[in-house]
Amino acid sequence: ESPSEVFIEGIFIPSYESGKLHMLENLLETIDPGLESWGVYLIATCKYLQRKSYYHILYELQQFMKDHVRAAMTCIRFFTHGAKSYTELGGKQTWLLKIKDHLKVYLQEVSRSSGRKKMAFTFRKKMSAADVSRHINTVDLQMEVTKFLHRCESSGTSQMTGSSLPTLFGNNNMKMDVACKVMLEGKNIEEGFGIAFRVLQDFQLEATEVYSKVAKQLVKQQKYGEIRQLLKCVNESGVAAKNDGDNIILNCLNEFKNIPAEDLDNLIQDMDSDENKIQAYVMCNKLRSAYLVSVRQEKSRAVQLVQHVQQLAENSRDDVVKAICTQWL
Question: Which residues neighbour 119 within 8 Å (Cβ) at sequence distance 6 or greater?
Answer without folding.
Answer: 110, 113, 126
